[in-house]
Fold:
Amino acid sequence: MVVGCKGKRVHKPAEERQHEILEAAAKIFSKCGYQAADMQVIADKAGVGKGTVYRYFPSKEELFKSVLHEKLDMLRCIMEKAHDAETDPLARLRLVMKAHMCFFEDNPEVLELFAQERAEFRDKTQSVYFMRVSENRDDWLHLFSDIKAAYPVRDISVEDMRDVCADLMHGAVILHDLPFNKKSSSESLEVIFDFYVQGILQHK
Structure:
């Protein structure tokens, strides 16, 4: 009879192990808060030793920021896939907006993490979320240029089209989490998209 070694950890690629630590950390941070989150608890949740966590992330602050970056990488990937699923520019925009809103509905802990970041690091660094938004904002200009080329849009710059759309999406995500909002992300999207499009198209 062969008996396995109880508690022996399975060797995994570094990237997979790192991802598991980040997922465990996201759950613990969102549940306990940054200050109360314990690195040993995170290690236990990820199924690794505490030293392994520190090998990848030298401090709790670095681990927390890495969690935010990974979640935003996931969001960008989902939005890019939505963009590539359509060819018509307005249909693309609708899918991108839906992907953005549904991501936060499916991952409610992310908003909690953003709130914690603002509370804990307000005076130290720029918000990871808004830093990434600033870095990536020009990457979407082509989509609004395509809309302007394909549809009778009013005399509005593509930068303004992008910025207003972004403001609507960011605001909708935050307000959607409030108790009085009974609509799903998909339902909210239809209203927001309709108002956005009817506001930029030139009516004859």
Remarks:
- The chain is about 70% helix and 0% strand.
- Residues 60-84 form the longest helix (25 residues).
- The domain at 66-200 is CATH 1.10.357.10 (Tetracycline Repressor; domain 2).
- The two ends are 82 Å apart (CA to CA).
